[in-house]
Specification:
This protein is mainly alpha-helical. The chain has ten helices and two strands.
Protein backbone atom coordinates (compact mmCIF):
# COMPACT_ATOMS: atom_id res chain seq x y z
CA UNK A 1 0.00 0.00 0.00
CA UNK A 2 1.36 3.41 -0.94
CA UNK A 3 2.23 5.91 1.74
CA UNK A 4 -0.07 8.90 1.89
CA UNK A 5 1.32 12.24 0.82
CA UNK A 6 2.64 13.99 3.90
CA UNK A 7 3.75 17.54 4.55
CA UNK A 8 7.32 16.29 4.20
CA UNK A 9 6.60 15.23 0.63
CA UNK A 10 4.94 18.56 -0.03
CA UNK A 11 8.03 20.35 1.21
CA UNK A 12 10.28 18.45 -1.16
CA UNK A 13 7.81 18.88 -4.01
CA UNK A 14 7.76 22.62 -3.37
CA UNK A 15 11.52 22.69 -3.70
CA UNK A 16 11.28 21.37 -7.24
CA UNK A 17 8.60 23.93 -8.08
CA UNK A 18 10.84 26.69 -6.78
CA UNK A 19 13.74 25.35 -8.84
CA UNK A 20 11.55 25.27 -11.95
CA UNK A 21 10.56 28.89 -11.35
CA UNK A 22 14.22 29.87 -11.15
CA UNK A 23 14.85 28.12 -14.46
CA UNK A 24 12.07 30.10 -16.13
CA UNK A 25 13.45 33.31 -14.67
CA UNK A 26 16.89 32.50 -16.04
CA UNK A 27 15.52 32.14 -19.54
CA UNK A 28 14.13 35.66 -19.52
CA UNK A 29 16.90 37.48 -17.68
CA UNK A 30 18.97 40.01 -19.59
CA UNK A 31 22.74 39.79 -19.53
CA UNK A 32 24.84 42.85 -18.79
CA UNK A 33 27.81 43.75 -21.00
CA UNK A 34 30.37 42.57 -18.45
CA UNK A 35 28.52 39.50 -17.21
CA UNK A 36 29.74 35.93 -17.43
CA UNK A 37 27.96 34.36 -20.44
CA UNK A 38 26.73 31.44 -18.33
CA UNK A 39 25.69 33.59 -15.38
CA UNK A 40 22.86 35.86 -16.57
CA UNK A 41 21.34 35.70 -13.09
CA UNK A 42 24.49 36.89 -11.31
CA UNK A 43 22.76 39.50 -9.10
CA UNK A 44 20.26 36.90 -7.89
CA UNK A 45 22.95 34.22 -7.59
CA UNK A 46 25.18 36.47 -5.50
CA UNK A 47 22.27 37.34 -3.21
CA UNK A 48 21.36 33.67 -2.80
CA UNK A 49 25.01 32.82 -2.15
CA UNK A 50 25.06 35.40 0.64
CA UNK A 51 21.89 33.89 2.08
CA UNK A 52 23.30 30.36 1.91
CA UNK A 53 26.60 31.49 3.42
CA UNK A 54 24.72 33.20 6.23
CA UNK A 55 22.74 30.06 7.05
CA UNK A 56 25.92 28.03 6.83
CA UNK A 57 27.79 30.36 9.18
CA UNK A 58 25.03 30.56 11.77
CA UNK A 59 23.70 26.99 11.66
CA UNK A 60 25.63 24.42 9.66
CA UNK A 61 29.24 25.29 10.47
CA UNK A 62 28.76 25.27 14.28
CA UNK A 63 26.74 22.03 14.16
CA UNK A 64 29.22 20.38 11.77
CA UNK A 65 32.12 21.47 13.99
CA UNK A 66 30.53 19.84 17.04
CA UNK A 67 29.75 16.74 14.96
CA UNK A 68 33.39 16.48 13.90
CA UNK A 69 34.71 17.05 17.42
CA UNK A 70 32.33 14.62 19.15
CA UNK A 71 32.39 11.68 16.75
CA UNK A 72 35.73 9.89 16.35
CA UNK A 73 37.15 9.60 12.85
CA UNK A 74 36.36 5.86 12.41
CA UNK A 75 32.67 6.54 13.07
CA UNK A 76 32.59 9.48 10.66
CA UNK A 77 34.44 7.42 8.06
CA UNK A 78 31.83 4.68 8.38
CA UNK A 79 29.00 7.18 7.94
CA UNK A 80 30.66 8.67 4.88
CA UNK A 81 31.25 5.19 3.43
CA UNK A 82 27.60 4.28 4.02
CA UNK A 83 26.26 7.22 2.00
CA UNK A 84 28.90 6.81 -0.70
CA UNK A 85 27.83 3.19 -1.07
CA UNK A 86 24.21 4.23 -1.58
CA UNK A 87 25.44 6.57 -4.31
CA UNK A 88 27.26 3.78 -6.11
CA UNK A 89 23.97 2.14 -7.07
CA UNK A 90 22.67 5.33 -8.72
CA UNK A 91 26.07 5.75 -10.38
CA UNK A 92 25.62 2.25 -11.80
CA UNK A 93 22.27 3.25 -13.33
CA UNK A 94 23.71 6.41 -14.87
CA UNK A 95 26.78 4.63 -16.19
CA UNK A 96 24.44 2.17 -17.90
CA UNK A 97 22.43 5.06 -19.36
CA UNK A 98 25.69 6.55 -20.64
CA UNK A 99 26.75 3.19 -22.15
CA UNK A 100 29.89 3.09 -19.99
CA UNK A 101 30.15 -0.67 -19.60
CA UNK A 102 33.25 -0.97 -17.45
CA UNK A 103 32.24 1.91 -15.20
CA UNK A 104 28.79 0.36 -14.74
CA UNK A 105 30.33 -3.01 -13.87
CA UNK A 106 32.68 -1.38 -11.35
CA UNK A 107 29.83 0.57 -9.74
CA UNK A 108 27.64 -2.51 -9.38
CA UNK A 109 30.56 -4.55 -8.03
CA UNK A 110 31.36 -1.83 -5.50
CA UNK A 111 27.77 -1.71 -4.29
CA UNK A 112 27.51 -5.47 -3.95
CA UNK A 113 30.86 -5.95 -2.22
CA UNK A 114 30.50 -3.04 0.18
CA UNK A 115 26.85 -3.82 0.99
CA UNK A 116 27.55 -7.41 1.97
CA UNK A 117 31.21 -7.74 2.91
CA UNK A 118 31.47 -4.11 4.03
CA UNK A 119 28.49 -4.46 6.42
CA UNK A 120 25.98 -2.25 4.66
CA UNK A 121 28.66 -0.02 3.21
CA UNK A 122 30.23 1.02 6.52
CA UNK A 123 33.57 -0.32 5.27
CA UNK A 124 34.90 0.45 1.79
CA UNK A 125 36.17 -3.02 0.96
CA UNK A 126 35.86 -2.38 -2.79
CA UNK A 127 38.46 0.39 -2.73
CA UNK A 128 40.83 -1.92 -0.87
CA UNK A 129 40.27 -4.36 -3.75
CA UNK A 130 41.23 -1.59 -6.22
CA UNK A 131 37.75 -1.30 -7.75
CA UNK A 132 37.48 2.38 -8.74
CA UNK A 133 34.47 4.57 -8.02
CA UNK A 134 32.83 6.19 -11.06
CA UNK A 135 30.54 8.79 -9.51
CA UNK A 136 27.72 9.77 -11.86
CA UNK A 137 24.34 11.46 -11.68
CA UNK A 138 21.49 12.22 -14.04
CA UNK A 139 22.78 15.72 -14.79
CA UNK A 140 25.97 14.20 -16.18
CA UNK A 141 23.91 11.63 -18.08
CA UNK A 142 21.98 14.44 -19.77
CA UNK A 143 25.28 16.14 -20.57
CA UNK A 144 26.73 12.93 -21.96
CA UNK A 145 23.94 12.86 -24.55
CA UNK A 146 24.42 16.47 -25.57
CA UNK A 147 22.27 18.53 -23.19
CA UNK A 148 24.22 21.74 -22.42
CA UNK A 149 24.74 22.89 -18.85
CA UNK A 150 22.65 26.01 -19.34
CA UNK A 151 22.91 29.04 -17.06
CA UNK A 152 24.48 28.89 -13.63
CA UNK A 153 22.02 28.85 -10.72
CA UNK A 154 22.50 29.03 -6.97
CA UNK A 155 19.63 27.18 -5.30
CA UNK A 156 18.36 28.00 -1.81
CA UNK A 157 20.32 25.92 0.73
CA UNK A 158 21.44 23.48 -2.00
CA UNK A 159 24.08 25.81 -3.44
CA UNK A 160 25.70 25.80 -6.91
CA UNK A 161 23.81 24.23 -9.80
CA UNK A 162 22.96 24.80 -13.45
CA UNK A 163 19.75 24.66 -15.43
CA UNK A 164 20.62 21.12 -16.55
CA UNK A 165 21.51 19.92 -13.06
CA UNK A 166 18.39 21.53 -11.61
CA UNK A 167 16.18 19.76 -14.15
CA UNK A 168 17.95 16.52 -13.17
CA UNK A 169 17.33 17.00 -9.43
CA UNK A 170 14.01 15.10 -9.24
CA UNK A 171 15.57 12.08 -10.97
CA UNK A 172 18.66 12.22 -8.77
CA UNK A 173 16.47 12.45 -5.67
CA UNK A 174 14.40 9.46 -6.77
CA UNK A 175 17.59 7.52 -7.49
CA UNK A 176 18.89 8.10 -3.97
CA UNK A 177 18.09 5.01 -1.90
CA UNK A 178 17.75 7.18 1.21
CA UNK A 179 14.76 8.90 -0.43
CA UNK A 180 12.83 5.62 -0.34
CA UNK A 181 13.45 4.96 3.36
CA UNK A 182 10.32 4.69 5.45
CA UNK A 183 8.89 5.91 7.72
CA UNK A 184 9.30 9.49 6.55
CA UNK A 185 11.06 10.42 9.79
CA UNK A 186 13.76 7.86 9.01
CA UNK A 187 14.21 9.26 5.51
CA UNK A 188 14.55 12.81 6.80
CA UNK A 189 17.00 11.68 9.49
CA UNK A 190 19.15 10.00 6.85
CA UNK A 191 19.13 13.16 4.74
CA UNK A 192 20.05 15.28 7.74
CA UNK A 193 22.88 12.96 8.76
CA UNK A 194 24.24 12.79 5.22
CA UNK A 195 24.17 16.55 4.81
CA UNK A 196 25.84 17.07 8.19
CA UNK A 197 28.56 14.53 7.44
CA UNK A 198 29.19 16.15 4.08
CA UNK A 199 29.43 19.62 5.62
CA UNK A 200 31.81 18.39 8.31
CA UNK A 201 34.11 16.93 5.66
CA UNK A 202 34.32 20.35 3.96
CA UNK A 203 35.08 22.50 7.00
CA UNK A 204 38.70 23.01 5.95
CA UNK A 205 37.98 23.38 2.24
CA UNK A 206 35.66 26.37 2.50
CA UNK A 207 38.13 28.19 4.74
CA UNK A 208 40.93 27.71 2.22
CA UNK A 209 38.67 28.86 -0.62
CA UNK A 210 37.64 32.03 1.18
CA UNK A 211 41.22 32.85 2.11
CA UNK A 212 42.75 32.13 -1.30
CA UNK A 213 40.14 33.54 -3.69
CA UNK A 214 39.75 37.27 -4.27
CA UNK A 215 36.08 36.61 -5.02
CA UNK A 216 34.83 33.30 -3.57
CA UNK A 217 31.63 33.58 -5.60
CA UNK A 218 33.34 33.68 -9.01
CA UNK A 219 35.86 31.05 -7.91
CA UNK A 220 33.09 28.62 -6.91
CA UNK A 221 31.06 29.38 -10.04
CA UNK A 222 33.96 28.92 -12.45
CA UNK A 223 35.11 25.68 -10.83
CA UNK A 224 31.60 24.27 -10.79
CA UNK A 225 30.87 25.17 -14.41
CA UNK A 226 34.24 23.90 -15.57
CA UNK A 227 34.03 20.55 -13.82
CA UNK A 228 30.39 19.84 -14.61
CA UNK A 229 30.65 21.02 -18.20
CA UNK A 230 33.76 19.04 -19.05
CA UNK A 231 32.90 15.87 -17.14
CA UNK A 232 29.92 14.98 -19.33
CA UNK A 233 32.16 14.74 -22.39
CA UNK A 234 35.00 12.79 -20.81
CA UNK A 235 35.74 9.84 -18.58
CA UNK A 236 35.90 12.19 -15.59
CA UNK A 237 33.21 11.68 -12.99
CA UNK A 238 32.08 15.26 -12.51
CA UNK A 239 33.62 15.56 -9.06
CA UNK A 240 34.50 18.91 -7.60
CA UNK A 241 37.86 19.08 -5.82
CA UNK A 242 36.31 18.42 -2.41
CA UNK A 243 34.72 15.21 -3.70
CA UNK A 244 38.09 13.52 -4.01
Amino acid sequence: MKNKLSWHDGLYGGRWLAAAALCLAAAGCATGPGAHPQDPLEPYNRAMTQFNDGVDKVVMTPVATVYKEVLPWPVRAGIGNFFANLGDLWSFVNNVLQARGQAAADSLARFGINSFIGIGGLFDVASEANIPRHKQDFGLTLGHWGVPTGPYLVLPLLGPSTLRDTVALPADTWGDLAWHARPIATRNSLYGLGFLDRRASLLGVTGVRDAAALDPYTFTRDVYLGVRGNAADSDDDGKLPEDE
